[in-house]
Design a protein that fits this description.
The complex is a heterodimer of chains A (258) and B (317). Helix content of chain A is 72%, strand content 0%. By secondary structure, chain A is mostly helical. In chain A, helix 1 crosses helix 2 and helix 6 runs antiparallel to helix 9. The mean pLDDT of chain A is 92. By secondary structure, chain B is α/β, with parallel strands linked by helices. Helix content of chain B is 38%, strand content 26%. The chains are: A mainly alpha (258), B alpha/beta (317). Chains A and B meet through helix 1 and helix 4 of A and helix 2 and helix 3 of B.
Chain lengths: 258, 317
């Protein structure tokens, strides 16, 4: 059995679970971006001069960030409680999988396949399609914004997996939302140019994967030159993804060795 | 083709250490194809740890272990592909339906969708859960959940089914239903390995068993052999009205020399003897008159009390 085949087998669980909740994701993938676009993109945007957003409309400015933010928000659903719960005696999926031919690394890969590939590729594509109706894209290259959202997801997901796998009780789970997902969403140049942030907060922006992803996505949707060469943004996200994968593998292997 | 007397599991001086604590202290045993093999012992005796090593989810700290002639260290996935495991906590997925719990699990073994569905339907029939197929797991009773976990463990037609305390926490009716299913599996020639601290369970289901205590095997054999070896043929149970614990211990001291071993329990005294009539006569001669006297055949529970009784008393002290 190859590692890829094993990851697909583990993915089977996520797929079965998704079939129970897919209708709920329609809200986050379709309705939420429409609401954001109407209230913030068009509503707030009517007060904002396009000079402040680099010569593009405010709606055009926030659209790429919205696509990538959806990827981050989904991780809050897919990689926090499901990962923590995977090790719990009251029904831990990883504990059940441990008795099968799957290795801990296969369980990790299967979960990532779902959270990093399947979820952004479906939901962020849907968001991107919905936003197209608001006329916020400069060209067909906008489709690459979905690839940027996958990269953002890949750079964060394994770290969430490692963190949630290392917790023995759920008291610290909310910290993920308070200290990771919320600040990442707010301070990544999604709703306003990152340069507007006070200087001492700038390093926070630079380390945020969502900022790197949004810069890439904005280049794709609006043709705006990103802050760094695209390769640098991609390299940063890839490095985080690979580092996170090794960290997550280390934690799950330890956690599932009895 | 399965070979007769084929050894499925072979352990020599098997050990497991957690920090300073040695949970398994050098155990030797072999499990043959087609047999129902039991690990009997109190909580903390090392049964579950031994099972986890056989299940290839726990790395032995020392000794030698082979499962299906393979080394768990290097061939864990290949070994687990041929095992069926019913963990103590079931680990069923509460977000999925009863049926999905089986088909998703089948997927882990690479069983194709169509085959998985057919197999799942057949197994639900076997554990009498067909009517609950579309229900959520949380809606099932404890006994039903355990039966579902048993069905799940059979999805890959395993060479060996491992059950960790299969009836712990179940009501008597549910226990009997589980026993019935396990007995049927046994009759179908499925090899079974189970841990339990219920003597009646071990006696009903196991062809051969080992008794574990503090990480060691202190006895092994068939239930009958263990009874013949470690206890007398008969046991006389004496009750003395409302007398309990200390009062009974006092009376027990006066029974010295009557029958074999004397074991005072909280509500009665057990006298191990080869001849109950002789024991009754000896009691009469000493003018010891219990309010009730029950003569019965020795059971595995007597073996267990005899072998580990002192350890349990020390635990409670």
């Amino acid at each position: 059995m190859t590692a890829t085949a094993a990851a697909w087998r583990a993915f089977g669980l996520q797929w079965a679970l998704y079939r129970h909740i897919w209708h709920g994701t329609v809200f986050s993938s379709v309705l939420l971006p429409i609401l954001y676009m109407i209230s913030i993109g068009i509503g707030v945007g009517s007060y904002i001069d396009s000079d402040a957003t680099g010569g593009i409309t405010y709606a055009e400015f926030i659209a790429p960030g919205l696509i990538c933010s959806v990827a981050v928000m989904m991780l809050g659903n897919d990689m926090v409680y499901p990962v923590f719960g995977g090790y719990q005696e009251w029904g831990g999926a990883y504990l059940a999988q441990r008795a099968t031919p799957l290795r801990p690394v296969d369980m990790l890969n299967g979960h990532l396949l779902y959270a990093v590939a399947f979820r952004p590729l479906t939901a962020c594509t849907l968001v991107a399609v919905v936003l197209a109706f608001f006329g916020v894209y400069a060209s067909a290259w906008a489709v690459l914004a979905v690839v940027a959202s996958v990269l953002v997801s890949a750079s964060i997901a394994p770290w969430l997996f490692a963190w949630c796998s290392s917790l023995k009780n759920d008291a610290m789970l909310n910290a993920v939302f308070r200290f990771a997902i919320m600040p990442i969403t707010l301070f990544s140049g999604v709703f306003f140019p990152a340069e507007q942030m006070p200087g001492f907060l700038q390093p926070l922006v630079w380390v945020s994967p969502l900022w790197h992803g949004t810069e890439l996505a904005r280049a794709a949707t609006a043709g705006v030159a990103p802050a760094l060469p695209p390769a640098a943004h991609i390299a940063y996200l890839a490095l985080l993804a690979v580092g996170g994968w090794f960290a997550a593998r280390r934690v799950i292997v330890r956690r599932l060795s009895f | 083709m399965p070979l007769e007397n084929e050894i499925l599991v072979r352990a020599r001086d098997l050990r497991k250490r957690y920090g300073d604590h040695e949970a398994v202290r050098g155990v030797d045993f072999e499990i043959q194809r087609g047999e129902a093999f039991g690990f009997l012992g109190a909580n903390g005796a090392g049964k579950s740890t031994t099972m986890r090593m056989i299940g290839c989810v726990s790395e032995p700290s020392g000794g030698h272990l082979e499962v299906f002639d393979r080394d768990p260290h290097t061939d864990g996935p290949a070994i687990r592909a041929r095992l069926g495991v019913v963990p103590q906590d079931n680990t069923l997925d509460t977000m999925l339906t009863v049926f999905e719990n089986l088909t998703v699990y089948a997927g882990y073994f690479g069983i194709k969708r169509k085959e998985a569905r057919a197999k799942a339907a057949e197994l639900l029939e076997f554990v009498q859960l067909t009517a609950r197929s579309g229900d959520q797991v949380n809606d099932l009773s404890g006994g039903m959940q355990r039966r579902l976990a048993i069905a799940r463990s059979l999805i890959n037609a395993p060479d060996l089914v491992i059950l960790d305390e299969p009836t712990t926490g179940l009501d008597p009716q549910a226990r009997h239903l589980v026993w019935e299913r396990l007995f049927q599996l046994k009759q179908q020639g499925v090899s079974i390995l189970l841990t339990t601290h219920y003597m009646d369970e071990a006696e009903q289901l196991c062809d051969r068993l080992v008794v574990m205590d503090e990480g060691r095997i202190i006895a092994q054999g068939s239930p009958r052999e263990l009874i013949d070896t470690y206890v007398t043929k008969e046991v006389v149970e004496l009750r003395f009205g409302g007398k309990h614990t200390t009062a009974l211990a006092e009376i027990a001291r006066g029974l010295d020399g009557i029958g074999g071993q004397i074991e005072p329990l909280p509500d009665r005294i057990l006298v191990y003897t080869d001849d109950a009539d002789d024991t009754a006569a000896a009691l009469e001669a000493r003018e010891i008159r219990p309010t009730s006297m029950l003569d019965r055949r020795a059971t595995l529970e007597d073996v267990f009390l005899r072998l580990t009784g002192r350890a349990l008393v020390e635990d409670e002290a």
